[in-house]
Amino acid sequence: MGRVLEFLDESGLAENTIVVFTADHGDLHGSHNLTRKGKPEDESLHIPLMVRWPKRVASAKLDTLATSIDLMPTLIAMAGLPVPDRCEGRDLSAALVQGHPPQVDSVYTQGAMTTAKGQWRALVTPTHKLALYGNGETPKLFNLEKDPYEMTNLAGTREHAALEKELRAQLMSKAKQTGDPFPAAAQKAKVLYSDEEAKRAQGRAGA
Hints:
Helices cover 29% and strands 14% of the residues. The protein has seven helices and six strands, in the order αβαβααββββααα. It has a four-stranded antiparallel beta sheet with strand order 3-4-5-6, covered by helices on one side. The protein has a two-stranded antiparallel sheet with strand order 1-2. Strand 5 (128-133) and strand 6 (140-143) form a beta hairpin. It is an alpha+beta fold. The longest helix has 17 residues, at 161-177.
C-alpha cells in the first residue's frame, strides 16, 4: 500500500485518485472460542475502512456506522456521478468530503443466509448490538460502549428486556425492508433467477 501511495504522489495522480482500504470480513482467531469468519462477533464483523483523497478528504476518524454496501453509492457520489435510486446502501460522501456525518441509527448485517443451520442476522447501533439466529440459538445482546469486547450477553435479562424487544423489532423491520425472509433461509441467487431472467436483466442494464 505504501508503494502505491508513493507512486500516486510522485506521478501527480494522487489528487485525482480515491484510494479505499477495507476488507470483506475480519477473523475471530480464537476469540469467544471461535475461529475463522462469518459470525456476528465484532472480531469477524468489524472491518477497516480508510479513504484517501488528498485535499478533498480530511485526515480524521469518523464514528458514522457504515457497511460494505455503502461503498458503491458513496464512491459514485464522490466521482461526481448520480447515485442510482436502486442502491440499497447509503451515500456517505458528505461525511468524508464535507465532514458532516449523516445520522445513521443502525446497520443491518447478515450471515450464512442460505442455510437454516447457523444463519444469523444482527442489528448494530452506536451503542448496542443484537444478534438473532435462525436455528433457535440463544440471542446475543451487547452494550458496545461498556462492553466493547462483547463478554457479557444481556439477552434474556429482565433489566434489558425492553431494549431487546425494541432492537428485535427494528431488526425484523430491516429484514422486511430488504426482502429477507429470516428466520427462514434465503434462496440462492441461481434459484431466484433463471437464465432468461438474467439475460433480460442484463439487457435492461445495457439499455
